[in-house]
Amino acid sequence: MCNENLKISERVRQTIRDYTLFDDIFMSVAFNDNIELTQHVLRVILGMDDLIVTSSKSQDELGSLFGRGVRLDVLARDSSGNAYDIEVQRTRDADLYKRVRYYQSMLDSEALKKGQDFREINRSYIIFIMDYDLIGKGLPIYHVESCIKETGDLCEDGREILYVNGTYRDLSTSVGSLMHDFACSDYRQIKNDVIRDTVRECKEPESRGNRRMSELFERVFKDYLDKYQEDLLNERNKLIETERDLQEKTRTLQEKNQALQEKNQALQEKTQALQEADQALQERDQALKESKKREKRLEEILKKHDIDYASELQIK
Length: 316
What we know:
The chain has 316 residues and is an alpha/beta fold. The chain contains eight helices and six strands; from the N terminus they run H-H-H-E-E-E-H-E-E-E-H-H-H-H.
């Protein structure tokens, strides 16, 4: 995505050539301000042939005054004011459902102005186009809507989540054809005219002198680099904090271990003392037994000689 004055290394050029619409950076460039492409994709996924898209912005940031903000791949709106967040996902994310929940809440947080009634809130859609089958049932799309658990009735709150199965390639269906086109790195293999023209424009901008696309690609690369560096810094800080926490826990464990060793030493000393006391008692018992044996033997000897043992003891 460069004009003649913007030099990109061959490695970057090759990376761009290998990109598909499943790559969020490439998707962001392709969809930004591209109402025709966004409208086509939404019409296919939602089955709304009369949907009219009025805006399409990529890498749109939704901020939060007190919490974490989010950056959406593509945020689109239609003629009725409904909001559409379109995301592409390659990697499996264990926290995906919670992430989607947060994205939905961020969309809703901007849906009403101060003083507006809740009935005025428009519909919102979170659409994740995955390059794998999230649910594993082989269906083209998985729809998630709120429902009443006990009855199964839908709860019409105006929210809808869709997970699109990127591995679904039945070319006789509109979704299958769309996923085929999303997976093509060579625009010549793309079937839909709108998608093919967009991908060609992004892949070979020099043929049209498309300065806007090259500048956008440059900005997106910079944003991703900044975000990557920010993520690295955050991970580094997390590792440092984790190391400190581990050191503190290790120190606490060492102190507890020292205390246990001291208690164990004291217990061993007490055990030793008890053993020694027990040994002394055993020796005393043994001495008493020996003494009684001697007395009994002496009594037998005296009786044998007709000598009263008690009198003998008194005389002595």
